[in-house]
Design a protein that fits this description.
Mean pLDDT: 90
Bound molecules: FE2/S2 (inorganic) cluster
Largest sheet: 5 strands, mixed
Structural class: alpha+beta
Order of helices and strands: HHEEHEEEHHHH
Oligomer: single chain
Strand order of the largest sheet: 2-1-5-3-4
Shape: globular
Number of strands: 5
Helix content: 25-40%
CATH superfamily of the largest domain: Beta-grasp domain
Distance between the termini: 27 Å
Number of helices: 7
CATH topology of the largest domain: Ubiquitin-like (UB roll)
Length: about 190
């Protein structure tokens, strides 16, 4: 399950950002991120406001619209991205909290050389594990984090890892089949 931020006020979130990020960068007025392997330097007040969520920065500033925002308050998992390999809810994370972090979005999963889809993405297509697809990028990112940590998780662990994701199209059973297929194929290798 992606880490959930607290539903606290902006003031509180800003304070967290200063605590977690690189203070010297923030004082200098920049947020440095690595997004899908590329360094991005964002000027505070120009490229990024202190109140901007990571979801907003990813989609509106960096143009990576594969990450979806649905509930926008930490309840559905649609906005999940990886921060230093761990799933986080980007709608509940301020960009200034992410200074110095490595962010992976759904756009970062395909093979950069061949353009081939990641095996998890391919399995979701093979098993028709979506309908509208709005929840899919977030589910795939949580699956990636799980399988990077544990390539052969039990079904219970898969269900637990994906339990924070709502799919309004009720594709959950197909999602489980897709994830089991990825696990099976990696075990056969
Ligand atoms: S959009 Fe972030 S949890 Fe729903
Ligand atoms: S496929 Fe539509 S919300 Fe999940």
């Amino acid at each position: 399950m992606a880490e959930r931020g607290r539903k606290s006020g902006q003031q509180d979130k800003r304070a967290n950002g200063k605590k977690n990020g690189s203070v010297s960068n923030l004082i200098a007025g920049y947020v440095n991120l690595t997004v899908n392997g590329e360094s991005r330097k964002l000027m505070i007040g120009k490229d990024v406001q202190t109140s901007d969520t990571l979801a907003h920065t990813i989609r509106e500033t960096l143009g990576l619209t594969g990450t979806k925002v649905s509930c926008d308050h930490g309840a559905c998992g649609a906005c999940t991205v990886l921060m230093d390999g761990k799933p986080i809810l980007s709608c509940m994370t301020l960009t200034v909290e992410c200074d110095g972090k490595s962010i992976t979005t759904i756009e970062g999963l395909e093979d950069p050389k061949t353009g081939r889809l990641h095996p998890i993405q391919q399995a979701f297509i093979d098993h028709t594990a979506f309908q509208c697809g709005f929840c899919t990028p977030g589910i795939i990112m949580s699956t990636k984090a799980l399988l990077d940590k544990d390539p052969s998780p039990s079904e219970d662990k898969v269900e637990e890892a994906l339990s924070g994701h709502y799919c309004r199209c009720i594709s959950h059973y197909h999602v489980l089949e897709a994830v089991k297929d990825v696990i099976r194929k990696s075990e056969e290798r």
